[in-house]
Amino acid sequence: PRRPAPAMPSYATAGETCRALAAVPDAERTLFVIGTRKLRGNNEVHLVTHDRDVDALRCVKAWTHHPEIADVAPCPTDGSLLATVYNPSSGSKDHGAAVWRIP
């Protein structure tokens, strides 16, 4: 008989849909950055770590991000820099990007 796969840790963003996920380079911790997808209203960028002792994901910090997030991209050489690409928050067709410094 086939064994079921072990349970994987999961992370919920308080009812928001995750649109973008990326690994953050860090020599000491396993970090991810998550961008939510809410078409109207505020979105969030979450910095999430994997706690190996209890095999769980936990939020280190969350920031408000007003427009809908299309993508997140941590800097491959500096884990404290993060870029977000976002869709317009109004009827405008303009897209944009922001660079963040994270702890």
What does this entry look like structurally?
This protein has 103 residues and is an all-beta fold. Helix content is 0%, strand content 50%. It is built from no helices and seven strands. The chain has strands at 17-24, 31-37, 43-51, 56-65, 69-74, 81-86, 96-101. The chain has a four-stranded antiparallel sheet with strand order 1-2-3-4, with no helix packed on it. It is globular.
Instruction: Please give the share of residues in helix.
Output: under 10%
Sum up the overall morphology in one term: globular
**Low-confidence parts, pLDDT < 50 over ≥5 residues?**
none
Tell me the strand order in the biggest sheet: 1-2-3-4
Q: For the residues shown, what is the average pLDDT?
A: 81
| Classification by helices and strands | mainly beta
Order of helices and strands: EEEEEEE
> How many beta strands in the DSSP annotation?
7
